[in-house]
Design brief:
Number of helices: 13
Shape: globular
Number of strands: 21
Radius of gyration: 22 Å
Oligomer: single chain
Distance between the termini: 56 Å
Number of domains: 3
Length: 442
Amino acid sequence: MSGPRHYLIETWGCQMNVHDSEKMAGQLSTMGYSPTSDPGAADVILLNTCSVREKASAKVFSRLGALRHLKRDNPDLVIGVCGCVAQVESAAILRRAPHVDLIMGPRNIARLGELLEQARRDGRSISLAREDDPVVFPSATAARGAGPRAYVTVMEGCNKTCTYCIVPFTRGREVYRPVEQVLDEVRHLVTLGYPEIELLGQNVNAYHHGPADFAALLHMVDRIPGVRRLRFTTSHPGHLRHGIVRAMRDLPSVCNHLHLPAQSGSDAILAAMRRGYTRDRYISRIDLLRSAIPGITFSTDLIVAFPGETDEDFEATLSLVREVEFDQVYAFTYSPRPGTDAAHLDGTVPEALARERLQRLLALQEQISARRNEATIGRTFEVLVDGASRLSPTTLQGRTTCNRIVHIPAGTATRAGFLNVRITRVHAHSLTGIPAEGATAA
């Protein structure tokens, strides 16, 4: 192939999928490809997928159907499916979308260049992860996104056996990255001008390598000059030990926000999910963090209508939301995934009832979020500006340490991207403020 070559990566899923796409983009850049947002101009189109929910898989197949005409018009175009849908549904992809040239599981990103060349040479390449495959962390070449935050993978995989979750199959068992590799990457990112680092892992607070546990890793990253903010996701309540809480309390860079999935407020459902904790233990972790870190905010994941969920179980979830008062809730109706134990459980909740429960939960959280947002009016927060706002073309937006989105007037001067902002107005899921120079941030 002669002339300039272009790639397009479309991403579904969480921060880990976004960072996986950055890793793939970096490898393609080293091969001489340039990014494009126009599918018609691309020589390579990769769909980096998530299969946590059934609807995510359906979107991927719908998108593959929409791309079929591009392959027909340009036989040299390589279309690839990467990530969790590739790992789980490779046979269905080949059957339903024979125009796909490349199928790559989430633990095979380091082989992208080799697989792409094989697809061009042989007409198709397939690489799915096996349990004994080594995990390579190709972060050094990652093509980082715009903004002040950089992601750093510290572990891959999951050792949990949650009955609803397909991640242990798609990403394998836990593999922990050596401490020095993590620290070297963070040092490099600081030299590139990233003041905020987010550590990633399926169960990030389960990280350990040699004598270092996750609390020790937080201490080591905090000591790197230039790290102004440090976040991590996703945490499991069962691994939220006192050392991590003390690190969050004592280390100046660690942000006062935690995403801590609860999944349900019912002990019966938590047991059926095999989450490994009770409602009381979950709330005890929240209470411990709130007593140690004033002003900390929480977000969570909740599954509605898990098999066997009764009205009483659902009411227990509502009462958990009322008691904790999360700042943000990501809630979904249960979606059976192939190969999981929960897919064989009895007690399917009727779809109409599941939708009704979800709407009730979301309406409750809207009330709580609105009340908690209203309480910020007049307060001052340090905001790290990360780009243009979706609110209007005349505003910028950034985030507080407690992970609230704040809109500010465009043209506002900042010090290395940081600004103290006084909140003047609230919206459904964000805040608006004005510069408050000289004020002390909350």
